[in-house]
Amino acid sequence: MWKKCGLFLMSFTLSHTVYGLDYLPEQIELLKEAQKGNPEAQYDLAMSLQTTADMAHLKQSDFFYWLEQAANNKYDVAQDLLDDILAEYDPKLLQDLAPNGSQKIFDEVYQLDKQQPKNYALIVSKLKQAAELENYTALAQLSWIYGDSRLAKNYGVAFSTIKACTLATYNNLRHGDINKEDMEYLCSGDVLNRADWPQAQKLANKMAAEIKQKPTALFSLLDQLK
């Protein structure tokens, strides 16, 4: 997988053609500047979308769209990253991130996302189904849904930083360091915000290892966490 050329820690979203999380205020502000043709904002917006982009349809994602816009506007780091992606892009390898037929579920979620009003409960249910099939993007998005209070409210789940950390850790165990920066952030003391956060981290690591052994029991195991 290509190396990221920057870090932009916030909750993530997609909006063009591939399903993704709702926009949060930080992204709305970036989007306003990106739409004005600001290449730095375009790049920052792209980087905020990278780890939750649907890798199986990467070239249709907001991440790729805004990265390409920044590159077209001669933003050096965007040009370098885009060149790396195009040189290494292999759809077959990326499909390994959507194993066990889980991409079909994402296609269903995409159709649900186009409906107004959105059926958030059904979207979350589909994301959970895909996550139990070891889908990278579902795990990445659910990590942020649980780990950001605004997203948790939107999607109707109980805000839980320990569950977010566990999901991110399991995703990292299953798929490698693609989500390393997300995992480190979601499992940090600032986010866990607990006096016993080192113990919470250890608990998340232990639970993630158990989930890896039995991925279809992901949410029954996750519900044991408080």
Low-confidence stretches: 1-19
Number of helices: 14
Strand content: under 5%
Task: For the record, give the distance between the C-alpha atoms at the N and C termini, rounded to a whole number.
Answer: 34 Å
Query: In percent, how helical is the residue content?
Result: 55-70%
Round the mean pLDDT to the nearest integer and report it.
85
* Main beta sheet strand tally, sense and closure: none
Number of domains: 2
Number of strands: 0
Please tell me what the overall shape is: globular
* H/E element order: HHHHHHHHHHHHHH
User: What is Rg?
Assistant: 17 Å
| Classification by helices and strands | mainly alpha
Would you kindly provide a written description of the structure presented here, covering whatever features stand out?
- With 226 residues, this protein is an all-alpha fold.
- It folds into two domains: 25-96; 98-222.
- It has 14 helices and no strands.
In short:
The chain is mostly helical and 226 residues long. The protein has helices at 25-35, 39-49, 62-72, 76-88, 91-94, 102-113, 120-132, 136-147, 149-155, 161-175, 180-186, 189-192, 197-213, 218-222.
